[in-house]
Amino acid sequence: MKKGDILFKILVVILIISLIILFVEVIYLIDKEFSKPYLILPNDNKIYLDIADTPSKRSIGLMYREKLDENMGMLFIFEKDMNHTFWMKNTLIPLDMIFIDSNKQIVDIISNATPCKSDPCKTYSSKYPNKYVLEINVMQSEYNNLKIGDKVIFKNV
After folding, report:
1. Eight-state DSSP code of residue 124
2. CATH architecture of the domain with range 38-155
3. Rounded Cα gap, residues 65 and 63, in angstroms
4. By C-alpha distance, which of 64, 31, 69, 66 is closest to 50?
5. Following CA atoms 134, 117, 55, 111 in sequence, which dihedral angle do they give, to the nearest 10 degrees?
6. How far apart are CA 73 and CA 69, in angstroms?
7. Gap between the Cα atoms of 32 and 55, Å rounded
8. 131 contact partners, CB below 8 Å, separation of at least 6
9. Which of 78, 110, 140, 148 has the fewest CB atoms nearer than 10 Å to its CB?
10. Is the pLDDT assigned to residue 107 strictly greater than 70?
11. DSSP alpha helix (H) spans, the chain
12. What pLDDT digit, counting tens, does each position of 1-11 carry?
């Protein structure tokens, strides 16, 4: 076998291995994107979610975050429908709070919950029992035309 033939075969093997690695990376990225939790609003817009489903995650929430990307939010998940209370201590950005019951129906909306700069901090709670609370960027509830009684759909939650 000639030296050129061996070199050609080595290059072909390297090319095939590189394509396999690239294919695996693409599949991984696609799977990661499709498995990220999100919520579908009544207008079909998606809100990609960070999940707060344990007491420690719920107590930290969005504290110390300097920004929240567009179409992102945090979904607080509780064990059952109750009147859950929130505050904005150590939260740096204003938020809208969407209270959602176990039937995935919006039961209350608090627009423009402002950061707490000093104690005592104002508290926010729904007028009605809820199992989930979605925190999103301020004015997003108005932008998405959310109303009490609207239903949302959870995906990968």
Report:
1. E
2. Sandwich (2.60)
3. 6
4. 69
5. -20
6. 8
7. 26
8. 77, 78, 79, 80, 81, 82, 100, 101, 102
9. 148
10. yes
11. 3-35, 55-60, 140-143
12. 677 677 788 88
